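Good morning,

Attaching, inline, the backbone tokens for the sequence recovery test we're adding to the shared suite. The designed sequence is right after.
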């Protein structure tokens, strides 16, 4: 590794000391963070992917962003963690099979907690350094997804004005700008002056070049807004802005049959849910009109699964 392109876990005396005593400490995950210094001072951007372990286009995009910016052609500092949830990635699942949990829901984690809590606790030092955290997601192996950028308004002036700036520049064709409660992690981060953004592009375990390119385009637009690069922003010509998300969930364990995709209006059939013995059948309809964000495509239905997330 060159001096400007180094794995964060370097081999200092301190590190050796820590490794010796690590067996006596809570286990912290090695997240494989790549830290790149820009050629001038500026903001610090944290880019994560693979928080859901089976969402691949974000992971590909994270690797490509490392390759793009390893020449230090930016101001500030970039930290990239391509696969946060490595147990999930190795299991080809969104969740972490070690504890059956989704690390994304466990912010700020717990270094003495379960495997997923420890993963998020390991992420916190990188979040602490960052002015902005972009988390790259997509549809899981079992999910279809139409790309969108997920921004969070928190009531904190500094981060909200940055969010408004991104929205005014129409940096994505579809933007979900959600107002968050004070307990949401975006609000917790905004209280510390940090902006949290989720990018959603890609689906069904695919690694399509177009989906990966969107992740990179959006990340560059955010970097331009943060003053880290000068790349002109590609603005959407007719952007769709959504302010709420409605989740439609599975009523019981059983068999899911998704309806062919069509525009969602209030009452549109999303699919049919059946019990295993097929004595129970329920037509699942959209409770609101809006746009499909992501939806379940495979047959297995587990009570509480998100069958469709609707932005409106
Ligand atoms: Zn995800």
């Amino acid at each position: 590794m060159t001096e400007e392109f180094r794995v964060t876990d370097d081999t200092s005396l301190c590190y050796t000391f820590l490794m010796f005593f690590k067996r006596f400490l809570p286990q912290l995950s090695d997240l494989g963070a790549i830290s790149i210094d820009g050629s001038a001072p500026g903001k610090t951007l944290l880019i994560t992917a693979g928080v859901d372990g089976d969402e691949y286009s974000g992971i590909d995009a994270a690797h490509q962003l490392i390759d793009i910016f390893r020449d230090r052609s930016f101001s500030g500092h970039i930290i990239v963690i391509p696969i946060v949830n490595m147990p999930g990635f190795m299991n080809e699942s969104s969740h972490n099979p070690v504890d059956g949990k989704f690390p994304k829901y466990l912010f700020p984690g717990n270094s003495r907690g379960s495997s997923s809590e420890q993963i998020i606790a390991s992420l916190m030092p990188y979040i602490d350094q960052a002015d902005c955290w972009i988390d790259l997601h997509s549809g899981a192996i079992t999910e279809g997804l139409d790309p969108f950028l997920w921004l969070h308004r928190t009531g904190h002036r500094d981060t909200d004005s940055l969010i408004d700036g991104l929205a005014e520049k129409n940096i994505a064709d579809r933007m979900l700008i959600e107002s968050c409660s004070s307990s949401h992690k975006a609000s917790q981060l905004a209280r510390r002056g940090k902006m949290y953004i989720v990018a959603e592009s890609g689906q069904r375990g695919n690694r399509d070049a177009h989906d990966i390119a969107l992740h990179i385009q959006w990340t560059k637009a955010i970097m331009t807004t943060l003053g880290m690069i000068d790349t002109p922003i590609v603005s959407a010509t007719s952007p769709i802005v959504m302010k709420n998300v409605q989740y439609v969930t599975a009523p019981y364990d059983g068999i899911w049959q998704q309806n062919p995709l069509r525009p969602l209006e209030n009452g549109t059939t999303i699919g049919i849910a059946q019990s295993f013995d097929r004595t129970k059948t329920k037509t699942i309809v959209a409770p609101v009109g809006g746009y499909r964000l992501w939806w379940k495509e495979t047959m297995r239905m587990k009570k509480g699964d998100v069958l469709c997330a609707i932005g409106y």
